[in-house]
Amino acid sequence: MDQQNRAKRRVAASRPVTKLRARSAAGVREIFQRFQAANPEPKGELEYVNAFTLLVAVVLSAQATDVGVNKATRKLFELADSPQKMLALGEERVRELVKTIGLFRTKAKNVIALCEKLIAEFGGEVPISREALESLPGVGRKTANVVLNIAFGEITHAVDTHVFRVSNRLRIAPGKNVLQVELGLEKAVPPEFGRHAHHWLILHGRYTCKALRPECERCLLNDLCDSPDKRVT
Questions:
Q1: Which EC main class describes this enzyme (predicted)?
Q2: Which of 30, 77, 168, 182 has its C-alpha lying 20 to 30 A from 197's C-alpha?
Q3: What are the chain's domains?
Q4: What pLDDT, in 10s, does the model give residues 1-50?
């Protein structure tokens, strides 16, 4: 039954609203004005101490919860907060520390490999470019976007399952895949809201606009939402 429920959640989370047109610019601005009023300084929920540990945390977070990643990385980052220290721990020790996280063997291998590349090619520093970040083992477009946004203050739109769902339901940036949604958000989100946009969307999707049972009765955007998934109480 748990497997069936997880499968249903994945399907619901990834179902795009392709029949609805994108919301007007004024409508999108109203949404982000409300997000800002309710939570002026939204934060990601992964714990980190510098750009390197943020990068590692995001790599570890693929197909895992932030809560689960944080439990594993607290001890890991106490021992290793730089590529040099992480390499000194070694893959076996890293694997042991993150074994509670899904796909931990592959992730531990990637963490060690990206540390080697950071030292060999980037002087042990996290690079400030999408191309360079995506050249690192275990780092894809979403991970690069998160690091660029949080560590370096760039306006990027990291699209996870929550951002994908909310962007479609609210017609901010309807799309059939994550890249379409990301590019749509780049065009739709007013620049003054760009830095925090993906945090607002993630938090809204995680705690209110949930995949199977969205909590529409307490949603600050209830009157603006015309999604087929909207629950009428």
A1: lyase
A2: 77
A3: 15-43+156-224 (1.10.1670.10), 51-152 (1.10.340.30)
A4: 444 444 445 544 445 444 568 999 999 999 999 999 999 999 999 999 99
